[in-house]
Design a protein that fits this description.
mainly alpha; four-stranded antiparallel beta sheet
């Protein structure tokens, strides 16, 4: 009797697995006759504490696998069984009520989003007769939209992109046709925009230093450019999604409903535009160094490389002078760090490997690498002296201008003309944030000394080269003595 009962319950599973996965007869037979997989199926049925069963293909043409824990990956379609309650004893008569099953694909997030959007949302939120039997269709509409938004955002993060989720316009349009549900529709739209604002704020709080560290432990100028290019790409992606017709309709509906989030979002669009402008300007300043960095990478002889340092450091000096972002101490030191790392990488390529095999050639290579690093350091120190003198002069000029600047705003107020003072409008401020204007206060930003942290890699490399140089020279002397001893 117990065997017959078990057979009925296994047959119940077999019917659902066959309808969902449509396996070959041989694969289905092996699933239920193989000792390992059959024990998993029986354990799911008999053990009241187990609630989940996963049946999936091992590979597109390699049989079926059953497990009580989620598979690490799904090569193809799968079917999942879940007991609706805990401590449920399954019988052939109650399995329909106590076990639910659902198909799964190898893209679970996309599958979940499609299932919620195309099946559950229309089923629970638009069918009037069914909605009356469900507690709070408006609440369900809100909850399902939040679920869809979370899934889409998570899937976007998994793909390394920013996704601004959109609600189901068809469902919202049908719900808005009923006067008593329009407030619920506006609430869903506001929740959608709140989610957008949260994601956009996260993008606008860009931390280039942390992103640069994630890209490489020894970042170089190409990495710095990549950081800002990625940031610009994310901003353009956000703008493209916000310019889509559906997104524009959502914002228009909120504006017509006089929602406070509509006005808040206008400020967000301005912040996005400002961030795009600033990022483009950062990239423009970095591009001014591109030609010299390309020549540095392609340089072959030490003499050719050393000739690049003067114009390269001069360009960095101009960037420091005119870019407000790279004028900041921390940001300029990062720029110095990536450039010095590039020079160290070039010097390492000059040194090569197997230094003790040919000590004469290795000695020459080490000397060349040290000359290159020393030439860059000397060029930097010359420009540092000039930059610090100019920085000191500018700081003194700024301090003097602040002392003699008239206090208050009345002295600069125009009473007539297109720029006349209007008490109804707030005082306008200069919105330029990336370039140092002539009227803007100069910030104290001295160039760091040669032993600053931004030069740690170069200093360690030069110390290591000197150590190895002594080792190579000592090895060469011992080999000369060995040769002399052999000659006698």
């Amino acid at each position: 009797m117990a065997t017959q009962e078990m057979d009925e319950r296994l047959r119940w599973l077999e019917t659902r697995i066959t309808s969902s996965l449509r396996p070959r007869n041989e694969d289905l037979k092996n699933l239920f006759t193989n000792d390992e997989t059959r024990s998993v199926l029986v354990e799911f049925i008999t053990n009241e504490d187990l609630r989940c069963l996963y049946v999936h293909a091992k590979s597109p043409k390699n049989g079926l696998q059953a497990s009580l824990s989620p598979p690490a990956q799904l090569p193809a379609k799968a079917v999942f069984f879940l007991k609706t309650g805990s401590s449920v004893k399954l019988t052939k008569d109650n399995m329909d009520e106590n076990v639910i099953y659902i198909d799964g694909a190898n893209m679970p997030l996309e599958h979940m989003d499609m299932l919620a959007r195309e099946v559950y949302l229309p089923l629970l939120c638009t069918d009037t007769e069914h909605a009356e039997t469900v507690a709070g269709p408006d609440k369900l509409m809100d909850v399902l939209h939040r679920l869809m938004s979370s899934v889409e955002v998570t899937h976007g993060h998994q793909q390394g992109s920013i996704v601004l989720p959109l609600p189901s316009i068809e469902v919202l349009a049908e719900a808005a046709a009923a006067t008593n549900r329009r407030a619920a529709v506006i609430h869903v739209l506001e929740s959608t925009v709140i989610g957008w604002i949260k994601q956009i704020r996260g993008v606008l709080k860009h931390d280039p230093v942390a992103e640069l560290s994630r890209l490489s432990s020894k970042p170089r100028p190409d990495d710095e450019i990549q950081v800002w290019s990625n940031h610009l790409s994310r901003l353009h992606s956000i703008n493209t999604q916000l310019d889509a017709p559906i997104a524009c309709d959502i914002l228009l509906n909120l504006e017509e409903a006089d929602s406070s989030y509509s006005h808040s979002f206008q400020n967000i669009r301005k912040e996005i535009g400002k961030a795009v402008h600033d990022t483009n300007e950062h990239l423009l300043y970095l591009e001014t160094m591109r030609s010299w960095l390309d020549k540095l990478q392609s340089g072959r002889s030490p003499k050719e490389i050393q000739q690049i340092f003067a114009p390269l450091v001069h360009t960095m000096y101009l960037v420091w002078m005119h870019s407000k972002y790279y004028h900041e101490r921390r940001q300029f030191q990062i720029l110095l760090r990536v450039v010095s790392n590039e020079i160290v990488a070039k010097s390492e390529s000059m040194v090569g490997e197997d230094l003790l095999q040919d000590t004469l050639q290795s000695y020459s290579r080490l000397k060349d690498a040290l000359r290159v690093c020393a030439a860059y350091r000397g060029t930097y120190l010359d420009w540092r002296e000039k930059a610090n003198a100019m920085n000191k002069e500018k700081v003194e000029e700024s301090a003097t201008s602040l002392i003699h600047r008239p206090q208050g705003q009345l002295w600069a107020t125009k009473l007539y003309g297109m720029h006349a003072y209007d008490p109804r409008k707030p005082t306008q401020k200069n919105e330029s944030t990336t370039s140092l204007g002539v009227e803007e206060e100069w910030k104290d930003s001295p160039w760091p000394p040669r032993n600053a942290r931004c030069f740690d890699l170069m200093n360690r490399f030069m110390e290591r080269c000197n150590d190895v140089l002594e080792l190579v020279e000592t090895t060469r002397h011992f080999r000369m003595l060995e040769s002399a001893a052999e000659i006698g």
